Structure to design on (378 residues):
């Protein structure tokens, strides 16, 4: 029993692609091993925007030997009354690569049939892995894929490196011009060096040392801790709390390899906007975390989670504030425009909207509904 470690190193892929890809890898490799008769222990997947990784513990080192029975023609069609083999028996034996004398007879609900027994020797797992791993790459489904260079393979983003180890030894195969090895890579900007690893636990630890939290569970906890930390630092213990929306936490987890948070602010005039507008601008558009006071009221603060630690924190904060300010200015403008007209003022605008060609305008529809409601209320 030995450990398999397989990593596909790629250009950054969209956050929404990662979890489905990891689930596919786990399910597909389990099906492959089952079909080949290979037993294994725990199957784990981890990933970031730049890597999709599969680890299989206690993978059987070779297939078990198998005995396969191939059913041929009925016994009565295979031999004549004197026991001489017919053309059917001879042809069946020849097709299975055995002597006609080695054919056996087995009883079935439909009668007795000739059987050719084949003993198949199991293959070494290491000999099977190159095609298994290459097949996983070819079969990985994505909402949108691309080709690059002169290659024919289609993938979410270009493949940069392949790490493939079984029992600590390299599983030798290639995808296009990318050859497998024992090397992974650290964070693109903070620790871009190549790293030689020996196994899954060593892989996780070496990546931590090179500014990558490969395990999404660990990275998610780090995102929450980082967001909470920068809010405490900014608010100085005044009861401010980040709004840790579960969906946003999950999205941010798959947008970064290691989280680095900054807490920014915006002009208090924007608090005039409905909370839903503010939260949507921060959470949906920018992937920022809103901040509230102890009573749940929005504060003019937000948290942005970066994928890279920037030496000039103020530069990072100002960049995020500038982007959010532009969105909120637009929101405030349209909010004021909307408030210039009452609902009653807007009613006449419905006369210019066709509801249905033979049923008139939306205004006429609303008048019919009002008449029906009045009739029902009597």
């Amino acid at each position: 029993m030995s450990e398999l470690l397989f990593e596909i190193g790629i250009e950054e892929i969209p956050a929404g692609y990662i979890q489905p890809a990891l689930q596919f890898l786990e399910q597909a490799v389990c099906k492959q091993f089952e079909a080949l008769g290979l037993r294994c222990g725990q199957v784990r997947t981890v990933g970031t925007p730049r890597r999709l990784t599969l680890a299989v513990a206690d993978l059987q080192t070779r297939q078990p030997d198998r005995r396969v029975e191939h059913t041929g023609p009925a016994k009565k069609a295979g031999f004549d009354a004197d026991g001489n083999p017919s053309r059917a028996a001879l042809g069946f034996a020849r097709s299975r690569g055995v002597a006609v004398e080695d054919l056996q007879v087995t009883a079935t609900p439909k009668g007795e049939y000739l059987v050719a027994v084949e003993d198949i020797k199991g293959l070494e797992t290491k000999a099977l892995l190159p095609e298994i791993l290459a097949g996983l790459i070819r079969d990985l489904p994505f909402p949108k894929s691309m080709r690059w260079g002169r290659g024919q393979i289609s993938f979410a983003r270009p493949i940069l490196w392949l790490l493939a180890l079984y029992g600590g030894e390299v599983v030798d195969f290639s995808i296009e011009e990318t050859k497998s090895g024992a090397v992974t890579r650290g964070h693109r900007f903070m620790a871009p060096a190549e790293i030689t690893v020996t196994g899954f636990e060593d892989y996780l630890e070496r990546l931590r040392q090179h500014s990558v939290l490969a395990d999404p569970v660990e990275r998610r906890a780090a995102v929450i801790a980082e967001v909470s930390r920068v809010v405490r630092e900014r608010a100085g213990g005044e009861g401010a709390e980040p709004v840790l929306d579960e969906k946003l936490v999950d999205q941010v987890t798959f947008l970064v390899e290691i989280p680095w948070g900054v807490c920014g602010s915006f002009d208090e005039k924007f608090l005039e906007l409905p909370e839903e507008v503010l939260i949507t601008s921060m959470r949906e558009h920018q992937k920022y975390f809103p901040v509230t006071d102890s009573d749940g009221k929005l504060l003019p603060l937000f948290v942005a989670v970066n994928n890279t630690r920037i030496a000039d924190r103020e530069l990072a904060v100002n960049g995020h504030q500038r982007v959010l300010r532009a969105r909120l200015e637009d929101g405030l403008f349209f909010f004021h425009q909307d408030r210039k007209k009452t609902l009653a003022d807007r009613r006449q605008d419905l006369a210019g909207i066709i509801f249905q060609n033979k049923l008139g305008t939306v205004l006429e529809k609303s008048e019919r509904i009002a008449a029906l409601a009045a009739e029902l209320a009597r």
